[in-house]
Amino acid sequence: MIKIVQAFDRKEITELASDDAAALEAKFETARKLFADRKAWLKPHQRIAILNRLADLVSAKRQDFGILIAREGGKPLTDALIETDRAIDQYAGYKMTVFTASEEIPIEEQFLHGKIYFTMPDALGAAGAEVSRSAVDFEPFVVEDRELITGQNPRSDHPIAAKLIAALDRATVAA
């Protein structure tokens, strides 16, 4: 059994059952087999639906999770609630850019000899991000939103560096 305790007074919160080495190895083997059978994988929209449902469930129990995090981690409840909110919608409302599907898929298929089962714009969009792109593939493109600075592709490195230096300059002046 694994005891879960409060950080500040070591009072027990609960106990969780633990596995022995053989049980863990059996679980790892099951996971390996499932991962290897790509035909049985859920489609991207199904995986996104599961993640959205999980976010809804956690959101409905936000206060309970916050209290549990505060008890276990020993942090103020307000901080624990912020941590819970970030777990629910880490990218909600953020503007950003990443490799586009039309940039990423040929690289995966032709150079890495793999198959993409989801694209970053789809996954980030499902997590609440507002993903934008340049009009032309592989052109430098940078989006800055609050503390987040993102570049669409490797050719965006110089514009990202310029945005980062400007952000650091602003932070220095403000301090």
Rg from alpha-carbon coordinates: 21 Å
CATH architecture of the largest domain: 3-Layer(aba) Sandwich
- State the share of residues found in helices, binned by percent: 40-55%
CATH class of the largest domain: Alpha Beta
> Could you tell me the strand content as a percent range?
5-15%
Helix tally equals: 7
Major sheet, described briefly?
2 strands, antiparallel
- The CATH superfamily name of the largest domain is Class I glutamine amidotransferase (GATase) domain
Weakly predicted, low-confidence segments: none
Can you tag this structure with a few keywords?
single chain; 175 residues; alpha+beta; Rossmann fold; two-stranded antiparallel sheet; two-stranded parallel sheet
Overview of the molecule:
The chain has 175 residues and is of the alpha+beta class. The strands form 3 sheets. Strands 1-2 form a two-stranded antiparallel sheet. β1 and β2 form a beta hairpin. α2 runs antiparallel to α4 and α3 packs across α4. The model has no long low-confidence stretch (mean pLDDT 87).
